[in-house]
Specification:
Order of helices and strands: EHEEEEHEEEEHH
InterPro entries: CHP04255
Radius of gyration: 21 Å
Mean pLDDT: 91
Strand content: 25-35%
Shape: globular
Number of strands: 9
Protein name: TIGR04255 family protein
Helix content: 10-25%
Low-confidence stretches: none
Length: about 260
């Protein structure tokens, strides 16, 4: 594994600038914070506490958690059991359906669909909504914090070479030049000297029924950490800024120069 060869500490430079992409392929950006509520968490009281504070958002739905088990014992036929684990959380969305926020018993998720405004607008809104969740749910610790950016690069409907878009591009077996009909690649990287990890998924999405979009190359970058500051210290903007820098380094290191120019 390559991590054995790269023990040197990574220097995170939040001041580094990256090319502005006027035609960014970003389709969804997400802040995901896992933190279990210590306060009472029932649908009626949760909605009553949230709705006055969520100007611009409307209630979308509530959801429950279920447990499904399949029991296989000896010669007896398989037996299934279902258990209702109760109310899990609620979702709210903006009128244009571009922003969705989840307030769950076990955490908070803020999702922004394209068009992406800018980092400051996105992160400040995420922190504002997290503050509402934190005050209501009163979690005692954060178990995981993640910053996820999902990109979709449009591909031509005919034949194409993935090497024109990403690097390194997938290759067929050596000396056996088979054509690709599918592609799915997942990697998880450590960040030496820091408590961050980066999960990267690259795949090709076929044309979707009912859409005028052709095939797309998905580049899904999830920067996360399970060692985060205590809530007494608040949720520092610095943590999100460092995650964003890592995301940018991975993105610009994963696409070709020609692809970057096409996004500008």
């Amino acid at each position: 594994m390559s991590h054995i060869k790269s023990p040197q500490k990574i220097v995170v430079d939040c001041g580094e600038t990256f090319p502005h992409l006027a035609r960014s392929p970003l389709v969804e950006s997400v802040i995901d914070i896992r933190a279990h509520a210590s306060a009472a968490f029932e649908e009626s009281s949760v909605r009553a506490a949230l709705e006055p504070q969520l100007s611009g958002f409307v209630f979308l739905d509530a959801h429950r958690a279920f447990e499904h088990e399949l029991h296989i014992e000896g010669e007896s036929p398989p037996r299934q059991t279902f258990r209702d684990l109760g109310f899990r959380g609620v979702r709210f969305q903006t009128a244009d359906q571009k922003q969705i926020v989840q307030f769950n018993r076990d955490g908070f998720v803020y999702s922004r669909l394209e068009p992406y405004p800018d980092w400051n607008t996105f992160s400040q809104e995420g922190l504002r909504l997290w503050g509402i969740f934190s005050a209501m749910a009163r979690p005692v610790e954060i178990n995981r914090i993640g910053l996820r950016f999902i990109n979709r690069i449009e591909l031509p409907s005919g034949s194409f070479d993935l090497g024109d878009y990403i690097k390194p591009a997938p290759e067929p077996p050596r000396n056996f030049d088979l054509p690709f009909i599918g592609f799915m690649h997942q990697e998880t990287f450590a960040v030496p000297g820091h408590s961050y990890f980066v999960n990267v998924v690259r795949t090709v999405q076929p044309p979707q029924a009912g859409s005028d979009k052709g095939p797309g190359l998905i580049l899904d970058i999830d920067v996360f950490s399970t060692r985060v500051p205590t809530l007494d210290q608040g949720l520092p903007m610095r943590t999100l800024d460092e995650m964003r820098w890592l995301k940018n380094k991975v993105f610009f290191g994963s696409v070709t120069e020609n692809a970057i120019r096409s996004f500008q």
